[in-house]
Amino acid sequence: MSADPFLTENSLVYIHEAQDTTDNDSRIISMFLSSCNLSANTVRNYLRAIERFRAFVAYKPLSRITWREIEAFKACLIAGGYSYSELPLAPASVAAYIAPLKSLYKWGSDANIALFPQNPTTSVRLPAIPVTSKRRYLTKSEVGKLLHSLKSQGIRNYLIGLSLVLLGTRVSELVAITTADFYPDPEDRGIWLSIKKSKGGKDREIKVPSQLWELFESYINCFPEKAGASFEHRLFPLSTRQVERIISDAGELSEIRKRPSPHWLRHTNATLALLNGASLQQVQETLGHSHINTTQRYMHTVEQIKKAAPDFVQDCLNDYIWK
């Protein structure tokens, strides 16, 4: 095959240098992700966000990026870039693309690493994310209807719903649970579930209610003998999207007016736990929140449910307004 006559020697040098830079940036990204101790799901999300940014800036070397490219990327996202519906992305979605870039540059510009001359994301602000957990929960009767719908579909779907609402797991954590993740406490009084490398790369332990464990045992005993409790076997070999669809479809069948999702059941877990006497620390440990402030968001909802300002005013005026 003959050489392209339009490619000069300088052009070929430029192409090779560009390829070397791209390869070097890929190695830097791999080093960054390896150093973060993130869950597999978070690594995928970080890599997707970083690669989309690289494509947006036409693979300009990461070391030459300025705050202008970051802000342009953020503006593109806000306007609907990388949105399947071509509608503006929600603040949380925009933040999910920008946060990995901020982490990458904070890591790479550290004086002990010094892969980047400066951090171009220092002045870039993440969009304010409204707190939506205040109303994204199911009532006790709605949980009952949803679980009844799931139970009619079989023990697997029933256990999926129970696990989400009783254990407060994230959907990515749920689909990763294996039979080897359950273990008894030192006095054999209860069973615990070990959640490994969840959000933020942290491990945590969740106590499994006794009746839920009995159902788990029955379910596990239905596995083929070679995949029983003594072997490491995924309890729910499904994708996160499949679980989301199972919960969504069950919500429609149960005819509740809300559109439940696995994350709604996580909110429901926190809200019902606090309403019924669990401490903030207990809920924080179960949900795996890094900061107690995240858990405290649920306290506002709980306090309003228990007794809001209008209830106090009514109590004060009871002798006058109902006579």
From TrEMBL:
Signal peptide, first to last residue: none
The protein, known as: Tyrosine-type recombinase/integrase
SUPFAM superfamilies listed in its UniProt record: DNA breaking-rejoining enzymes
Family according to the record: Belongs to the 'phage' integrase family.
Keyword Methyltransferase: no
Keywords from the UniProt entry: DNA integration, DNA recombination, DNA-binding
The keyword Repeat belongs to this UniProt entry's keyword annotation: no
Transmembrane stretches, start-end: none
Domain Core-binding (CB) residue range list: 23-109
Coiled coil: none
Occurrences of domain Tyr recombinase (ranges): 133-311
